[in-house]
Design goal:
With about 400 residues, this protein is mostly helical. It has one domain. Helices cover about 65% and strands about 5% of the residues. The protein has 14 helices and five strands. The strands form two sheets. It has a three-stranded antiparallel β-sheet with strand order 1-2-3, covered by helices on one side. Helix 2 packs antiparallel against helix 12 and helix 6 runs antiparallel to helix 7. The longest helix is centred in the C-terminal third of the chain and has 36 residues. The C terminus is likely disordered. InterPro entries: Cell_cycle_FtsW-rel_CS, FtsW/RodA.
């Protein structure tokens, strides 16, 4: 049975993930070495060493999540603690958190810092997927099947927005929306949700407009004319980096903009360095790898017969796709900048760890789908054709015998 499980893993997904992470580690070193020396006064490989540690921890977390049966996450014994952890972490950061880039989002652990809102992303995916999967029999009963999970989503988004981190709050809301749209509820309930959301959201934005629409945030909407805008320094230098790259790039390690011109070169703007050094070929590799993961996740969701597994795959795929779109759209001037890291590429421990755990869950769901397709369906067919078999009827270890 163990051999059958190993054969059922989607190794193409694992290989692409591994290549993307290794590529990201290389680019973190290339994009951060000048920043490390000039601005932080440390060795040139400082951020590289930390990201390597993050990747090792993330790989361990990925393996554990990939081996752990995803169906166990649906149990209340698992859901209740993670929901409590999400609220505890967000409340704790509001009390003792450190402010970075005008947002009190980090908890200092000494040698490391963690961002609780990053972990809330995967918790929201698991919680909403589990609850809506359990409510499939009455998913169209608005008060009973639709509303209760939304209370949790609104509360965590509200707490994150109070940090204030509207970018992360918006991403989590969009992830939740993707799961809701895929949950199976009818259009009537979806329109009702949209109407209720508008009724609450519009007055709230009017009341808090001075806090939400600050001069700094409004300056980000000048992305169409960054060279003329007062707050267009980052985007202007990103455009210069994109223009320098051309087809083949200047060569690995040869970026000019990372020499103090482009802020946050190893985090939010790492794609600009990739374009400048590796040109179109570097961009195509990243886009292909991220696109492959997102589309593979959607394919797994369509093939999965279990509602919980299908919603998990949708949640993970949407998280990666949304973050990639916001990051790439920001540095290319398609949408305003929001400070969202590029998945698997940008420097950041909390973000990478959450992404690796999420990928482990997706790989586990994919494994179950392949296992059922290759072996379980065949075993059931053998039973119906009266072949004497002694097979495993489920991954839980129960056996079915055909006695004659």
């Amino acid at each position: 049975m163990f051999k059958k499980i190993l054969k059922s893993y989607d190794y193409s997904l694992i290989v692409v993930l591994g290549l993307l992470c290794i590529f990201g580690l290389v680019m973190v070193y290339s994009s951060s070495m000048v920043t490390a020396v000039q601005h932080n006064g440390v060795a040139s490989d400082y951020f590289y060493d930390k990201q390597r540690t993050h990747l090792i921890l993330g790989t361990i977390a990925f393996i554990v999540a990939a081996l752990f049966p995803y169906k166990a996450y649906k149990s209340n014994k698992f859901l209740i603690p993670i929901v409590f952890f999400s609220f505890f972490g967000l409340l704790l950061v509001s009390i003792i958190g450190n402010a970075v880039n005008n947002a009190q989002s980090w908890i200092d652990l000494g040698t490391r810092s963690i961002q609780p809102s990053e972990f809330v992303k995967v918790i929201v995916i698991v919680y909403l997927s589990a609850v809506y999967a359990k409510k499939q029999s009455y998913i169209n009963e608005f008060n009973k099947g639709v509303v209760p999970p939304l209370v949790y989503l609104i509360l965590v988004c509200g707490l994150i927005a109070m940090e204030p981190d509207y970018g992360t709050a918006g991403i989590i809301f969009l992830i939740g929306l993707a799961i809701i749209l895929s949950s199976g509820m009818n259009m009537k309930n979806l329109l009702k949700l949209a109407g209720i959301g508008a009724i609450f959201l519009v007055p709230m934005m009017l009341i808090l407009r001075d806090k939400i629409f600050t001069d700094t945030r409004l300056a980000r909407f000048d992305f169409l004319h960054p060279f003329e805008a007062e707050g267009g320094y980052q985007l202007s230098n990103a455009f210069i980096a994109l223009g320098n790259g051309g087809l083949s790039g200047l060569g690995l390690g040869q970026s000019i903009q990372k020499m103090g011109y482009l802020p946050e070169a190893h985090t939010d703007f790492i794609m600009a360095v990739i374009v400048e050094e590796l040109g179109v070929f570097g961009v195509m590799f990243v886009l292909f790898a991220l696109g492959f993961i997102v589309l593979k996740g959607i394919f797994v969701a369509l093939k999965c017969k279990d509602a919980f597994g299908s919603l998990l795959a949708i949640g993970v795929s949407s998280m990666i796709g949304i973050q990639a779109f916001i990051n790439l759209g920001g540095i290319s001037g398609v949408i305003p900048l929001t400070g969202v890291p590029l998945p698997f590429i940008s420097y950041g421990g909390s973000s990478l760890l959450v992404l690796m755990v999420s990928m482990g869950i997706l790989v586990n769901v994919s494994m179950f789908v392949n296992y059922e397709k290759k072996y379980k369906d065949k075993e059931e067919q053998d039973v119906t054709t009266d072949k004497p078999v002694n097979t495993t009827a489920s991954m839980g270890g129960r056996f079915t015998y055909n006695r004659r």
